[in-house]
């Protein structure tokens, strides 16, 4: 078996690459390469001997920015875009592969590593699109191959100055601008034994970028090809040699093409989410600048032999592909695209949720959001899979439940927690993105540091505990969390935290962006309060007794200051009375219990009068306030429409993945999971699949469905850490509801059925059977206690 992370000795391995010079510039190491174009990508190779009776062979490798490893010309593993993206000055991830089966033959073998730039090195793309420029240094790799034999010592083949290097066939490698691959530069057999590498350079031994080598303990699940769709033919021919393909779905993808033609002829593929009126691609939602894949054919004498190209180090969210065929010279024949396949790529984090109901719009909304979630599941949750690819952190907790109901994300979020810890400064401050590749300063400084974003450090860990019962993130990072809350305390004035972005992308006057309707102090202080409460609860769980009272008392002081500053007793409103301000106060427990119903009434009145105006931050709390106040009818009406900004409008405008703006503004991203919080309502409230807060991680399952609007049936399931939870219900025309609930093994459950029955006598006796009993009846719910796992069916009268 592979060794544990702490047992791996890297002392006899060296980082290797090409000799370079470099200098520091604006917090980044900008690389002045000896031959910048020559080493856009790099091939590294080493031959070695395998003796008989090989017992186990294990490869440990980190190649920066991205790498692909091969043995004897065959790719090692199935993963793409390895290793995961990090702050390379703090953490460099290595991957572990069992390569025993690839080394069964006795004799000479070859190990090859191909390097590309990834997020590690973003240089000026020379007229093509980029979001920013930065560099952690030149291309480099470190690796060790352990050859364990049935008898005798283990042989280790490691990176050092004896390796050979050469430029790769990828002549342009840029995470925002694209990838250019020149097949004429392929060195056939370069990663196989017997290749003549005498003209290749020897590798230079380099310093690493500074980060500690870490393995799976802080790594996200790998990226792989998830689906392959055939694309039959272009949807539109713009002119000779230029055609546009409609893939039918906006998704994170890479093209797989088969082409033929003369040497030097090219196929350029330009991805986009939108098209212009003339049918050409429109990249405005992807940043506006040009980006593409370009394949230059190797050709052959007949110009008819097919060549296949699948990119190595660049992906993009695409609904449309503009394919341009370019001859080797003016007047020369154009290459032929024989086939094009759409390869959908993202994290292998497993799907765990399913949802469908009688409302077709809701089903389409669920699918719309799920595609955006899938497309942004990378080695961290990206905001969008094209123009930024940054880990904006507010989305990870505001959409935390919505994401976790659909996918098992414990490992991915564990990496996010580590990424955040790598960004924390000495004063405790945490950034809005992690890893931090783009430093916002000057006028944009609040984009770097905002409580609603950085509080993800505490909230992600708490949500992980709620969904899986996993205390480890809270235990591991508790002291870091205390430092962050201490930072908020240092910024607070009279316990009010008034900096940050507040309710980003709310619907108010002017262009979308920082909040128009909610003061910064409302959201900043609310998260300061919630963070303090989380610390108090975590301290109790972790046995940090001295911290419990400290943070409980701090939270209560913040609560008092918040109400003194923002609550208007005459109107029962908070601050401006925005949907975000009132909802966040209500959900976080900042509202005095005597005022809760009045604040809820104000929220309802505002939604009914104006429709949806809450943005990125406020929307989740608006949903939680309404659902928690038994007003899911308001949510139903708000979402079940297509005329006002919202999900329905996005679908009506042709979106196939959730967009960044409520109105599907073409200048905003069209593959953005940010506003997908309604998925939580689908599972938690409509299906009623919940975990008893006293037994986290679904150790005790609660099924508490909501019957609302014109919904006549619903089916949902969630694969908890204990097994599958199912909630299925239907309503008949004669006022009867049937609910089927599945409680997984090793758990117990409680089923709470809304009913119009006036007494328990009106409930069928068949509802109770072995393992299930009627616990109580309160006039609106029949509550059944389930002590034996299994599937149970309940019938109850229900007249809305």
UniProtKB/TrEMBL annotation:
Gene3D superfamilies: 1.50.10.10, Galactose-binding domain-like (2.60.120.260), Maltose phosphorylase, domain 3 (2.60.420.10). Keywords: Hydrolase. One of its GO terms (molecular function) is alpha-L-rhamnosidase activity. SUPFAM superfamilies: Six-hairpin glycosidases. It holds the Pfam family Bac_rhamnosid_N. Residues 688-759 form the Alpha-L-rhamnosidase C-terminal domain. Residues 53-225 form the Bacterial alpha-L-rhamnosidase N-terminal domain. It is an enzyme of class 3 (hydrolase). The keyword Hydrolase applies. Transmembrane segments: none annotated. Residues 352-684 form the Alpha-L-rhamnosidase six-hairpin glycosidase domain. GO terms for biological process: carbohydrate metabolic process. Its EC number is 3.2.1.40. Residues 237-345 form the Alpha-L-rhamnosidase concanavalin-like domain. The keyword Hydrolase applies. It catalyses: Hydrolysis of terminal non-reducing alpha-L-rhamnose residues in alpha-L-rhamnosides. This is alpha-L-rhamnosidase. It comes from Physcomitrium patens. The gene is LOC112276481.
């Amino acid at each position: 078996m592979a060794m544990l992370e702490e047992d791996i000795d890297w002392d006899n391995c060296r980082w290797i690459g090409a000799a370079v010079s470099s200098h520091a510039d604006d917090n980044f190491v900008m690389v002045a390469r000896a031959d910048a174009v020559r080493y856009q990508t790099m091939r590294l190779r080493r031959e070695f001997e395998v003796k008989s009776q090989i017992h186990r062979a294990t490869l440990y490798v980190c190649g920066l920015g991205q790498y692909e490893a091969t043995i004897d010309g065959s790719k090692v593993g199935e993963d793409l875009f390895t290793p995961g993206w990090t702050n390379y000055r703090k953490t460099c991830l290595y991957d572990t592969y069992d390569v025993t089966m690839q080394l069964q033959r006795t004799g000479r073998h070859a190990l090859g590593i191909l390097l590309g730039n990834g997020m590690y090195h973003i240089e000026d793309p020379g007229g093509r699109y980029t979001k920013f420029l930065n560099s952690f240094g030149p291309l480099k790799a470190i690796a060790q191959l352990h050859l364990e034999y049935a008898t005798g010592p283990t042989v280790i083949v490691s990176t050092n100055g004896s390796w050979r290097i050469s430029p790769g066939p990828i002549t342009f490698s840029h995470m925002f601008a694209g990838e250019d691959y020149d097949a004429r530069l392929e060195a056939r057999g370069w990663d196989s034994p017997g290749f003549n590498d005498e003209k290749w350079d020897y590798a230079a031994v380099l310093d690493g970028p500074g980060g500690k080598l870490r393995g799976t303990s802080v790594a996200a699940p790998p990226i792989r090809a998830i689906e392959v769709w055939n694309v039959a033919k272009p949807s539109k021919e713009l002119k000779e040699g230029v055609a546009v393909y409609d893939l039918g779905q906006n998704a994170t993808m890479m093209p797989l093409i088969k082409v033929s033609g003369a040497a030097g002829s090219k196929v350029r593929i330009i991805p986009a989410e939108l098209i212009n009126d003339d049918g050409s691609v429109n990249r405005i939602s992807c940043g506006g600048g040009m980006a593409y894949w370009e394949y230059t054919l190797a050709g052959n004498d007949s110009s008819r032999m097919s060549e296949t190209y699948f990119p190595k180090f660049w992906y993009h969210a695409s609904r449309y592909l503009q394919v341009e065929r370019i001859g080797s010279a003016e007047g020369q024949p154009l290459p032929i695209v024989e086939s094009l396949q759409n390869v959908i790529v993202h994290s292998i984090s497993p799907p765990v949720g399913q949802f469908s109901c009688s409302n077709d719009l809701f089903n389409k909304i669920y699918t719309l959001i799920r595609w955006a979630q899938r497309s942004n599941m990378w080695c961290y949750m990206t905001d969008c899979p094209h123009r930024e690819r940054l880990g904006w952190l507010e989305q990870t907790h505001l959409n935390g439940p919505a994401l976790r109901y659909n996918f098992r994300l414990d490992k991915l979020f564990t990496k996010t927690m580590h990424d955040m810890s790598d960004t924390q400064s000495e004063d405790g401050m945490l950034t809005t993105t992690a890893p931090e590749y783009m430093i916002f300063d000057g006028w944009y400084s609040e984009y770097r540091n905002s409580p609603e974003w950085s509080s993800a450090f505490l909230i992600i860990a708490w949500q992980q505990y709620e969904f899986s019962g996993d205390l480890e993130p809270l235990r591991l990072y508790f002291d870091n969390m205390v430092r962050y809350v201490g930072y908020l305390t240092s910024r607070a004035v009279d316990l009010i935290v008034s900096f940050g972005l507040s309710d980003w992308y709310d619907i108010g006057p002017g262009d979308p962006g920082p909040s128009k309707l909610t003061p910064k102090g409302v959201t900043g202080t609310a998260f300061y309060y919630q963070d303090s409460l989380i610390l108090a609860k975590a301290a109790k769980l972790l046995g940090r007794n001295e911290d419990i009272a400290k943070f409980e008392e701090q939270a209560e002081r913040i609560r008092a200051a918040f109400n003194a500053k923002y609550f208007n007793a005459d109107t029962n409103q908070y601050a401006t009375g925005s949907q975000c301000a009132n909802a966040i106060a209500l959900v976080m427990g900042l509202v005095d219990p005597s005022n809760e119903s009045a604040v809820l009434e104000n929220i309802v009145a505002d939604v009914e009068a104006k429709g949806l105006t809450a943005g990125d931050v406020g929307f989740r709390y608006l949903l939680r306030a309404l659902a928690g106040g038994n007003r899911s009818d308001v949510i139903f009406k708000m979402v079940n429409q297509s005329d006002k900004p919202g999900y329905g409008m996005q679908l009506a405008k042709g979106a196939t993945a959730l967009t960044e703006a409520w109105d599907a503004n073409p200048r905003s991203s069209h593959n953005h999971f940010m506003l997908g919080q309604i998925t939580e309502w689908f599972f938690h409230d409509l299906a009623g699949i919940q975990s008893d807060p006293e037994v986290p991680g679904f150790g005790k399952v609660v099924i508490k469905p909501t019957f609302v609007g014109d919904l006549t049936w619903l089916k949902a399931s969630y694969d908890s850490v204990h097994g599958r939870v199912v909630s299925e219900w239907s309503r008949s025309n004669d006022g009867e509801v049937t609910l089927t609930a599945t409680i997984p093994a090793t758990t117990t459950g409680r089923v709470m059925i809304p009913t119009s029955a006036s007494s328990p006598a009106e409930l069928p006796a068949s509802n109770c059977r072995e393992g299930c009993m009627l616990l109580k009846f309160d006039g609106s719910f029949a509550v059944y206690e389930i002590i034996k796992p299994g599937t149970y069916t309940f019938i109850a009268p229900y007249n809305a």
